[in-house]
Amino acid sequence: MAEFPNLSRRGFLNGTAAVGGLLVVPGLLTACSKTDSGSATGEGALEKLRKQGFVRVAYANEAPYGYLEGEELKGEAPTLHREIFQALGVDELKPTLSEWDGLIPGLQAGKYDVVSAGMAITPERCGNAIFSEPEFISPTALMVRKGNPKKLTDLDSAKEAGVTIGVMSGAVEGSYAKGAGIPEGKIKTLQKPQDGADAVKGGRIDAFLLTGISLRWLAKTNPDTEVTEAFVPKLDGKEQFSPGGAVFRKGNEDLRDSFNRELKKIVSDRSRYVQLLEPYGFGETEIPPADLRTADLCKG
């Protein structure tokens, strides 16, 4: 099993990681040739994948988004992408492990065809690659002690109850808590997810604030806790969806468009979406709103 999300994953979750999407290595942008989107004879990327029978995907070994368990590639992105590519006539995902920082540079260099790692859609990353429409959103939740003794449901209820909230160091959830009016003295900083779970169980904090996806995964190994229903926090009056998607090399727009057509069929079918991704902590609250579009997210 992969390790639980670390600093680079927190950067993904809050959409502020400077490395995964912003790093441009000299020469990589020019490494893509005509063969990336089609051959000199006009053969498209999807047709090439169909002929070879597999698509090369990159993952960062971060559960529950994309990780290797034994010999099997698991997680939200590989599960969803396998379903989509099989519908497109490409039966196999061939995985390549990459450090988070190297995902987009490796894509630009032609080492793989798709990033299957649950990467956040940000304007900076859109400048270096092309994204699918959102596969999921990352609403926030609270991890509390079993039974939820303070009856917390969201940040407003936490403020009203005067409880102490734990947040990850450097993560955006701290700004959510402050934006909701929770005093700084009631916000405790923790270094990693397990620290948050331990602080909840030990009574040092009343709740741990993180995405519902991550907290539900964390709760699997912390049975003395439970996770509230997810909610979409607001910052400066704007809802914080933190959407993620598949990433393609520039020039492969046709492949991306074919992928999007199949993706739409899944996200439009709530029961199918949940059936596919519930094992990884994704439910109806993670289904992207129909009007949440990558083109708008790329504009910022």
Summarize the helices and strands and which ones pair or pack.
Elements: H1 7-14, H2 45-52, E1 54-59, E2 67-69, E3 72-74, H3 76-87, E4 92-97, H4 103-108, E5 114-120, H5 123-126, E6 130-131, E7 140-145, H6 155-161, E8 165-168, H7 173-179, E9 187-190, H8 193-201, E10 207-211, H9 212-219, E11 225-227, E12 234-235, E13 238-239, E14 244-248, H10 253-267, H11 270-277, H12 294-299
Parallel strand pairs: 1-4, 1-5, 8-9, 8-10
Antiparallel strand pairs: 2-3, 5-14, 6-14, 7-10, 7-11, 12-13
Low-confidence stretches: 1-42
Helical region count? Answer: 12
Cα-atom Rg, whole angstroms? 20 Å
Shape: elongated
Helices and strands, in order, run as HHEEEHEHEHEEHEHEHEHEEEEHHH
Q: Please count the beta strands (DSSP E, at least 2 residues each).
A: 14
- Helical fraction equals 25-40%
Mean pLDDT across the residues is 87
Measured distance between first and last alpha carbons: 35 Å
Q: Major sheet: order of its strands?
A: 4-1-5-14-6
Strand content: 15-25%
List descriptors:
five-stranded mixed beta sheet, 12 helices, ABC transporter substrate-binding protein, Solute-binding_3/MltF_N, disordered N terminus, TAT_signal, alpha/beta, Ectoine_EhuB, 33% helix, single chain, signal
Detailed description of the structure:
The structure is a single chain. With 300 residues, the protein is an alpha/beta fold. 33% of the residues lie in helices and 19% in strands. The chain contains 12 helices and 14 strands. Strands 4-1-5-14-6 form a 5-stranded mixed β-sheet. A 5-stranded mixed β-sheet has the order 9-8-10-7-11, sandwiched between helices. Strands 2-3 form a two-stranded antiparallel sheet. 46% of the residues are buried.
